[in-house]
Design goal:
Elements (H helix, E strand, L loop, with lengths): L7 H58 L20 H6 L2 H14 L11 H19 L5 H24 L1
C-alpha cells in the first residue's frame, strides 16, 4: 500500500484494496442495520400478537353479549329492524345482524340512507381519489426534463473528475 502510485500496477493494486476495504466496511454496516431492523420487526410482531389476543378476547366477549338466544328468542328469523333496507339487511352476515338487532333494541339505532349512493359509483369515486393522490405523490417527469437532468449529472461528474485530476 506504500508503493509509488505513479506506477500503474501499484495504483491498480491500491485502488483494488481500497475498494475491498470499503466493501467490507459497508458490509458490516449493512449487517448492523439488518440486525436492528430484524429486532424492531420481532418487537412489532410481539406487539401484533398481543393485540391479536386482545382482539380475540374482545370478539369472544361481544359474541357472548350478542348470543343468538339472548333477548332475541321472540324475534323471527326474517325480522328486519325498522329503517333497514331489506336488500342491505339480507346481505349482512349473521353476527352483524345480531349486532344491529342489539343496537336497535337497546339504543334505538336506525341506519341513515339519506346519502345513499350506488356501490359502483362509490367504488369509482374511491378509485379516482386514489389516482389523484398518487399523481400528487409521484411527480411525472417529461422526457425533456429527464434529458436535462442527465446532462446536469454528466456535467457534475465531469467537474468531479477534473477536480480529482487536479488534486
Amino acid at each position: 500500500m506504500n508503493g509509488d502510485p505513479r506506477k500503474p500496477e501499484i495504483a491498480a493494486a491500491q485502488s483494488y484494496f481500497a475498494l475491498l476495504t470499503r466493501e467490507a466496511e459497508l458490509g458490516l454496516q449493512h449487517q448492523e442495520l439488518i440486525g436492528s431492523v430484524l429486532e424492531k420487526l420481532d418487537r412489532h410482531n410481539q406487539i401484533i400478537e398481543k393485540q391479536d389476543q386482545v382482539i380475540r378476547l374482545l370478539q369472544s366477549q361481544i359474541q357472548n353479549l350478542l348470543s343468538a338466544s339472548a333477548d332475541y328468542s321472540h324475534i323471527k328469523a326474517n325480522y328486519i329492524p325498522p329503517g333497514w333496507n331489506a336488500s342491505v339487511w339480507n346481505k349482512l352476515p349473521p353476527q352483524d345482524k345480531r349486532h344491529f338487532r342489539f343496537l336497535h333494541h337497546r339504543r334505538g339505532f336506525r341506519p341513515d340512507y339519506r346519502n345513499e349512493m350506488p356501490l359502483q359509483e362509490l367504488t369509482e369515486q374511491f378509485k379516482q381519489k386514489q389516482k389523484d393522490e398518487l399523481k400528487t405523490a409521484v411527480v411525472e417527469v417529461s422526457p425533456e426534463e429527464k434529458q436535462r437532468l442527465e446532462a446536469l449529472r454528466l456535467e457534475a461528474l465531469k467537474l468531479l473528475r477534473e477536480g480529482e485530476n487536479n488534486d
